[in-house]
Structure formats: structure tokens, C-alpha cells
């Protein structure tokens, strides 16, 4: 009988710290954008939005290549490089004299954080056996969900009382801690470290494909679907993506392995995750508009309103992981998606008079539902893959989250804007009080978009009933070939 290898908890703890800081940074600037616009004299909101879009764009371009790096280099090398880039970007952002420098700094940050999530997820998958993986991935979910959720709350408080630059100076010393631990304490944990060659054409097509789609759909929400740059980049992105996929299917060592979709449960988990991501963005986009523009609530109070939801997700993530180990993903996903569908429908019934407490409770219930779905579904899908395919599975999941988020945002913003315009025209034609037309029209636009999002979430609920537990388990030989600890070598 082979003795079970103890998971490398020290390695995991260091990676957790780095991933938490990097992911926490993603949503840190959302509420700070108006202050940044004021400081740099920017009048166009779509220009400032590039601080968010650019970050997402770099992630979308680099994440597909993460499978190559994880297979080619040790976790220690990747972690130190990723955290060094993140720290450098954070320092430059804090002292940025112009908006252009700040944008470049955000992209340097993103180039580091793009490698953190796939790296951590691969370590977790390789370090824990299938029967204990749910609890481990539940802790991983704590990082993935809670870190970006608490960003707006902290950002709202800082922006109201201090300069937006303080946000970066708070993150900087915190980021230096895992970097130092990585340099002096992190052991290598190798994943099939082979002499792989990087297919340059695949990298170019991936960049054009994912980059074009991410940019096009992100810009569509601001500039409209008839903008020539939006249409052009989406077409270039779509054509490049098709060429990229066809090329990967022909290569023996693809940059991103699309053949993993021959595993039905992984394909199903991807479909549910995409639909859920699009539905999730309805609250992420519409709530700040509703709370701050229509209700007139301050940025800090807006962040506080969303904090209980983040805390519930944080508490539930490890619990959900243990429930997944015991009962599987199907029952959790079905219950969780039912909660999401019902709560999303109630969001479509909000009014200008809805109370702060009611909105907070409803948002928290919705987050409870999402916490029961995300990690169990993703983990169940990855569990069906052979261990050698884990880097590709995690890269695929993270890439699809970025792309579906961009597409979902653009579609929902478009739906809201069109409905708002139509309602405003109807109210104006009926002789309604001009002072209240825009607020009432925007309220109707938000409600209608949440109603559409209810049906989108309903698709994920239906798909959840087709989830099955994986049947195959990795062999001991496969485990040894993928996961082994090595001493630190300089």
C-alpha cells in the first residue's frame, strides 16, 4: 500500500497570500474612478474605465498561456516572477504622475496576477486527493470570491477620507510579505516540468483572439455596438480565436488544450460557469448604478451594503467545500442556483423607495446561492480530467471567466441602456414630470435587465441537474509524474 503524501501546506499558504493580494486588487479601483478622473482632469468615463478594462484585458491575454508556464517552469519561479511584477506595478501606480503611467502600472500588476490563480489552483488539485479536494478548493474559493468582494468596501472608505493613492500604498507592503516568503521559504513543486517549446503563432492568435473579444465587448458597453472600433476588434478577435482553436487541435503540445472538452462533465461545468458569470455581472454592474445614481448612497455605504454578502461567501466557501466532498456538486448547484434565480427575480422588482436593509439582505442571499455553485461545479469538472490536463483545465476556466464576464457586461449594459432610453421617450411623450423622467427610466432599465438575468440564471439551474460525479481516478503513476516536491535549487 502506497503511503499517502502529505499536502505541502507551507507552499499552499504562501501561494494563498500572494493570490489573495493580487485578486483583491482587481476590484480596488472600481469606486475610486471618479476621484482619479478628477485628479488627472479626465472628462470621459470610458477613458478612466480602461484602468479596469486594461487589467482584465492583460489577464485575458496571459491566462491562456499559463498552462505552458506551469508545465515548463517550477511553481517557485512562476510565483516570484508574478509577485515581483505585481509589486513593481503597485509601486509605480502609487506614484504615477500621469494617467498614462497609472494605466501602464495597472497592466504590469495584471501581468503578475494573471499567473497567480492558475498556479494556485494547480497546486491545490495536485496536492489533494479527489475525496478531500472539495474542502481544499473551498478555501481556494475563499480567495477567489472574498478578495474581490471586499475591495469596493475598503476602496469606498479610503476614497472618502484619503487620496486614491493610499489604496496602492496599503497593498504594497502587504504584497511584499508573500514575495519575501516566496524568495526565502518557498519549495519547488513541479508539474510535468518538460522541455516544451512555445508555439509563437499560437501565442499571437491567442492574444488577438481573446484580446480582441475582451476589448470589443468591454468597449461596446461604453461606445455602443455601431462603433467601428468595437465591430472591428470583435471581428478580428472572433476570426483569430477560430484560427487559434483549429491550430490547437492540430498540435501535439498545444498552448491551450481544447481536447479536454471530450470529457462531458468538464464541458458541462464550463457551460454552467459561463452562464453563472454572465448572471453574476448583472449585480456587479447594476447595483452600483442603482445604489449610487438612483438612491444617492455614498461610495463607502455602497461598499458596506455589499460587505455582508462577501462575508457570507467567505464563511460558506469552506463549508460548501466539505459538503461537496460528502454529497457531490449536483445537489449544491441545484439548491444554489434556485436561490440565485429567485433572488435575481426579486432584484427585478426593486423600486426607488426600496430600503437599504432590504437591498443588503437580498444581495446577501444571492451571494449565498452563488457560493454554493461556483467552486463545487468548477471542482467537479476538473476532477474528471487526467492530472496531466490540470494546467489546461484551470487555464481554460480562468480564461472563460474573463471572456464571459466581458461579454456579459456588454450585453447587460446594452439591454439596460436601450430599455432606459425607450422608457424615457415613453415618459416624455406622456407628459411626465421632466425632473423624474431619467431616474424612473433608469430604474425601469435596471429592473428589466435583472429580469433578463433571471432567465439567464435559469439556464444554469437547468444544466445543474445534469451534473454527475467523476468516475475515473488518477493512477499512482500519473500522480508521481505530475506532482513531486523538490528541494530549492538556485
From TrEMBL:
The keyword Cell membrane applies. It comes from the Bacteria. One of its GO terms (cellular component) is plasma membrane. The keyword Ribonucleoprotein does not apply. Residues 11-472 form the Major facilitator superfamily (MFS) profile domain. It is found in: Cell membrane. Keywords: Cell membrane, Membrane, Transmembrane, Transmembrane helix, Transport. Its main location: membrane. The chain crosses the membrane at residues 12-36, 48-70, 77-96, 108-128, 135-158, 164-184, 196-217, 229-246, 266-291, 303-324, 331-348, 354-378, 448-467. Coiled coil: none annotated. Pfam families: MFS_1. One of its GO terms (molecular function) is transmembrane transporter activity. InterPro entries: EmrB-like (IPR004638), MFS (IPR011701), MFS_dom (IPR020846), MFS_trans_sf (IPR036259). It is a multi-pass membrane protein. Belongs to the major facilitator superfamily. EmrB family. This is DHA2 family efflux MFS transporter permease subunit.
